[in-house]
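User: I'm preparing a small set of examples for a lab meeting where we compare how different chains pack in three dimensions. I only have the primary sequence for this one, and I'd like the structure in token form so I can line it up with the others. Please keep the answer compact; I'll paste it straight into my notes.
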Amino acid sequence: MRYVAAVPADRRAQRTARLLSGLLLYGVSDALLIQAGLGVDPWDVLHQGLARTLGLQVGTWSIIVGAVVLMLWVPLRQRPGIGTLANVVLVGLAIDVTVWCVPAPHRLVVQIAVMLAGVVLNGLATGLYIGAGMGPGPRDGLMTGLAARGHSVRVARTAIEVTVLVAGWLLGGSVGVGTVVYALGIGPLAHLTLPMFALRDVGSSPRARCA
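Assistant: Understood. Below is the structure token output for the 211-residue chain.
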């Protein structure tokens, strides 16, 4: 008989709330970058290029690409969590709903404001959904899976994002100042928000249950 620390119900509820709010906010922030029209993050360059070339909505392509990337976890022996599966679906749905609800601005000053809001909200969303600790997104898992095979995390991430960026640009996706601002800003923002929203079990009194 062995004993496993049970996660209190209130802690599970907090994790779930942060996961769902983070994923939905992530989709909203992606949509703001799209609507700003000044360039999007590398993966959305690919999603946008596929949408412009083959039809369907950007968020729908986010779901399709996420599912394909998730299948690449199999040879890398990565295991998805609940958050991984939720990521595939919820981010894409939030992108499509927000694009439908939020009109694209036409004045440059408004475009810049919307773009900056998208980057900042994306940083907050990253801290929320990763801080929930319920599984990485499919794209992050691909990066860590490659890193576990002996590749540098930085090299793996750079290679993946450059590949999807170039592919998306060739398909007609938007690369611009927003892409650069996102690339420069998301790291520092995530550095601030990850510890801010991380849920820790330190100081809690986990109950033990038989397993």
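A couple of notes for your slides: The first strand starts at residue 3 and ends at 6. The two ends are 7 Å apart (CA to CA).

User: Perfect, thanks.
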